Amino acid sequence: MSAGGSPWDKPWDVFKESAKGLGFFMALRYQLIYWLSYKASEDNSYDRRNGTDTGGIVPTRNLDIDDDYTRWQANLFLASPARITSYMIEALEIDPADYTFVDYGSGKGRTTLVGAEFPFKQAIGVEISKELTAVANSNVAVLEGRGTLKAPVEFYCGDARNFVLPEGNLVLHMYHPFGQDILRDVLTSIRDQAKAGKPRKILVPYLFSVAMAKAVFHELPEYRRVDDIFCMNPQYRWTLYELQTGDS
To answer: Are residues 15 and 108 in the same domain?
Structure first.
């Protein structure tokens, strides 16, 4: 396999190596689980309905990020299923008209666009990749023509650590977008900006709530864990945090 390839380009080779380590029947069991499982990268139901391009998968190594440290602290692009985003927003039990929706690591824009199907003040995607942001903006043009968006949409192309929070109440959506160091920097920036402004409500639903992310949130006591929402597929387990901003 070349340095730029993926082992999954040759699934038979992966199976043979797995059989050597696990045994034939155990490897076969895991292969069957893989074949029968839901694969987010192959789910194009949202794009079929809307004529958009929000799916697929882009490995970290292929992201157009100049700085090596930042690129390897970014996680691969893989869009969340639209129904997961819709369920998450509905579960917050808020009036979207009182909030701005922000998606960190917005990629091709699916989550931001699903957020814009609710009447938020605005839906903003934050994405460092210029290539992915260009695709996201093309998707906005498609959906604006269909009239399905209920909130204005904007994409900020740049480092999430430099993103300036909008005023007012916020829903800050994250689908495990960063490694530990950058996540800490982003959460610290959000906290510091919130402290410097007027009291408001800031909710942070964190999808794919892995132990690494939980540990970073735990370091910052201003982020109060509100709830853990479980799912049969652990990739779609999420944790809701609320950032304490004084009198919010």
So the answer is: no
**Domains in the chain, number:** 2
Q: Could you report the per-residue pLDDT of 23-54, keeping only the tens digit for each?
A: 888 878 877 777 767 777 778 899 999 999 99
Q: Beta partners for 203?
A: 171, 242
Which has the closest alpha carbon to 110: 92, 87, 132?
132
Query: Comparing 30-44, 46-60, 91-105, 232-246, which segment has the lowest mean pLDDT?
Result: 30-44
From the list 126, 196, 113, 182, the residue with the least C-alpha distance to 153 is: 113
Q: Alpha-carbon distance 156 to 84, whole Å?
A: 23
> Taking the model in full, what pTM does it have?
0.85
Domain CATH for 61: 3.40.50.150
Question: Whole-angstrom Cα distance, residue 94 to residue 76?
Answer: 30
The pLDDT, as a whole number, for residue 17 is 83
- Measuring CA to CA, which residue among 76, 245, 94 is closest to residue 175? 76
Residue 218 neighbours by CB under 8 Å, 6+ apart: none
Report the relative pairing of strands 123-127 and 153-157 from DSSP bridges: parallel
Query: Of 135, 176, 178, 177, whose CA–CA distance to 155 is shortest?
Result: 135
Domain, as residue range, for 124: 42-243
Asked, for residue 248, whether it belongs to a domain, the answer is: no
Please determine, for residue 77, whether its predicted confidence score (pLDDT) is greater than 90.
no
Q: Do 79 and 179 sit in the same domain of this protein?
A: yes
Q: What is the pLDDT of residue 1?
A: 39
Cα–Cα distance list, 12 to 4, 15, 39, 234 (Å): 19, 5, 19, 26
